[in-house]
Amino acid sequence: MLKLKEHIANISWRQRPAVITVVGCGGTGAQIAMGLPYLHQALLATGHPFGLRVFLADGDTVSETNCVRQPFARSEVGLYKAVVLINRLNLFWGVAWEALPQYVRCGRDLPESDFLISCVDTRAARADIARIVRLKSRKIARYWLDCGNLADRGQFVLGQPLRRDRKDRAARLPCVHELFPSIVHRRADKRDRLPACSAAESLERQLPYVNSTIANHALALLARLFRFGRVGYHGGFVNLATGQVSSLPVDPTVWTRMRRSADKERRRLR
User: What is the domain-level CATH number for residue 124?
Assistant: First the structure.
């Protein structure tokens, strides 16, 4: 059994900007987007010559219900979320990041990135991303950071998509769908509740601060990877009901145990 206690990034970001694409600009995605300028500024302050280049992808528009727990104003209802956020960030921070106001369904919908951060709210959307990041024709993402949550808890998992041309399979960080197959089980979407149509229902489905808590933990993981070039964990689980946070360690023994559970889960889902 390979012994690992930390993951060392095998990418050099000193010769170009680090490219990050955020898919989904709702509760968690918007918080991720608004936190990325601080990472950009931190990189520049520590001597990085370029910082970040960021794309926001989402075909959804702002609704009145979104204005309750997402950072949108009623004057922005009907506008694309990605465009609203990008315009806001570009004006305030003086960056030139780009919006992709479309849903992601195939590899052509996304640029090649160092990090793809998914903040989607359906299993079908996450399954599409899992398929896209494994494309052998294009390297859509070197790393895939997935964020998801329920009403008062959530998780974030950083992985390296498995492609046939990978030479570091043994030390590769597993992606979220490899450890938790139900997260990409399309048929389970039918059992989930429909999007909230009122402010009260929106708050019932997702309590305040769950999105920002997940987003901040995910951003902190990225910040450590950029700053030190290595991390000892590649995800975590947050429970606001109990105040507990559990990390997902870089440990092949843990991955083997989780993969066994995942295999049982896949057989149950068939």
Answer: 3.40.50.720
